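Journal club side-thread
Mid-discussion, someone asked how the predicted structure for our own chain would compare to the paper's figures. Pasting it here so we can look after the session.
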Amino acid sequence: MTTPKPINGTPEADQQQNPPSTTSRSAMGRLELLINSELFADVVFSVGCDETLMYGHKAILTMASDVFRAQFTGSFRESRENGQEHEILVVDIEPPVFMEILRYAYCDKATISADNVLHLLYAAEKYLLTKLIKKCTEFAEERLCEANVLAIFEQNRNYELEDINRKCLDIICLNPIRMFGDEHFLTLDSKSLELIAGCERMNCQLSHLLKAIEAWLKINEHDAERGNDVTSWI
């Protein structure tokens, strides 16, 4: 049995057609209500691997990002189509991160955490949000340390952000013996290990590096055949 649609005069219909007054809110507060809201939305995004629908307002987005401006006003297909009928695919960003991109576009703020900083930095660079890029970079620099550097370094294989790679490798190469003894070292992917092994300056003997690679190969049997090619990494 289908639920009947609200008709004029009912509270449900009044709420949809005449949303509660927002005149007492600040300008920022009014904009926050529009983040990912269907109210007056004129563009729909299909976001992430689950193709989650998220909503936006072209006038606001074009003022925040030159990339959005090009999409909606330039020669891109999106500028010629009805934004509500043709969803814009965003396949390389997941909904929680895209939500922060919308929040920043509308309100100039975003929630940055250790779990999302690299994902958000990638998204900020994609949409050329310069100030958000700076905030994410500063956040990563302030919190990057020996305790989390291997995890962040491997997470960066998704994006290969050069500044993050460089900062991670600087920390790893400064105290490689400790890094080699970290249990996370043995679970690194082969690309991460190859980047570490290829560093020109490392604060340890070559024998220490070779021993670490040998231990890694024993754990990662699927890459064991690369053992004879270790010298090409160094």
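Post-session note: The longest helix spans residues 130-143.
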